[in-house]
Amino acid sequence: MPLAMPAADVWTLLAEWAEQTPDATALLQGERTISFAELHELSLRAARGLSDLGVEPGDRVALWLPNIPAYPILYFACARLGAIAVAVNTRFRAVEVADIVGRSGAKVLACAPGFRRIDFLSILAEVEPRALERLAAIVIVGDEPPTTPPAIERLRRVPYDRLLSRPRHGASHAAPNAPCNIFTTSGTTSAPKFVLHRQGAIATHAQEVARALGFDAPETLALSILPLCGVFGFNQTMTTLAAGKPCVLVESYEIEEIARLIAQHRPTSLLGSDDMIARLLELVPGKRPFPSVKWMGYAGFNAALENIAEVAEQRGLILRGPYGMSEVQALYAIQPIDAPVAQRKKGGGIVSSPFAHVRVRDPETGELLGVGQPGALECTGPSLMVGYYGNAKATADAMTPDGYVRTGDLGQIEADGSFTFLSRMGDVLRLSGFLVNPLEIETHIQKLPAIEGCQTIAVPRPEGVRAVSFVMLKPGAALDEADVIAHCKRGLANYKVPPRVFAIDDFPKTPSPNGFKIQRAKLREMAEAFLSS
Description:
Helix content is 30%, strand content 26%. It is α/β, with parallel strands linked by helices and 533 residues long. Helix 2 (36-52) crosses helix 3 (70-81).
């Protein structure tokens, strides 16, 4: 069946498929299969349940959930209510959760205390009470632990199943201009920025990507491996549903489980990282280990795996470099499937929407550049964000007067009309597929009494790209590396925790018109030397 008529909002995207193909499979997880009609029904009931908790149009609902059916169900429920779903990474810990829940003013927080033995409620108990003061309730997906930490006993806790037991929600507040998503991204300070999208942008982008990438093919089935809290995983799932096709929700990032699900479900496309691909190819033998996969979109984060596209192609797996960011959503562009591997492995490609446009500007003169001239990448199109929630200044700084977002990336336009992503222009780290501002890590480490200053860089390692921190100590202090790492583990997501911390007398610097700048490239060289010795 061809794609449905363009949906003006997120709720209509689901409702039209529930009406046209009610029995078609929408979601699979474990032994559970959910049809489009059931997804529609459960979302209506969840909307009523959230409404009973006081959620109204414009309110924020924080989804601190893995890739389980509750995530899309609650997301579509928010769309029905005109509420905003705030994505919270399951790897986040107290410091990060406090910031996101507190600054967004979330009215409801959903979490799954039984997920991968992560004690979400104990993490919440470490959050400053002030950050949770606007929470009306915590929605508990799955079983609640037998004991509740005293620090959060005051908060109302509601079983997710109780939401689903409610009758259908009535009037819809879904609309093209209704805000619906907040994704977090690194900014220029230690606090991440909140990227706000409206329903029209989410729905339109999902449908345009589905058309551009052929997700309307009868055999389409997607394996949603990447977390729904990020645009890469979220947009893949929404694109598949927009095409009326099934998604397998993968809640575990264990490579053996991913390989088993690929063999079981035979997906037609995958999205992932170079590290994941390398581990899959190492685990699964054979000339064509994944025969059902037509192509795989991947992000290259590990310089040690620079030839992964060539290696994969020898095993019958075609890799394509996409481009995206929270501000314009993922799969904003992707390399053509028939391009030579040398081109196809690079980030960028052809924009997915006929109404999207990319240009490159000289960062010093402001002059727009032509084909083959590297410069600052600017993007626009239907998938563009509304702005940074609660931060008008950051929005103004990021947007051009004529409606392009300044990506902070270095890129160039190609002769065939595509573009190539070359590198980040700033110092943002890419760790485990996530953009991380090093200042988040540095600020946290500098809370320790022995630390005078901290600088953090990313270093490619055989196991993936990892953070490495350098610290200057206060007079008379000694470095306890294990204590610094333990401090990071208590407050930050695991992928942000540096496995090594080195003490140095002073950071390498270079003079500039505005003072001294840290030589981060020199720090990277030092880290590589220390790690190899």
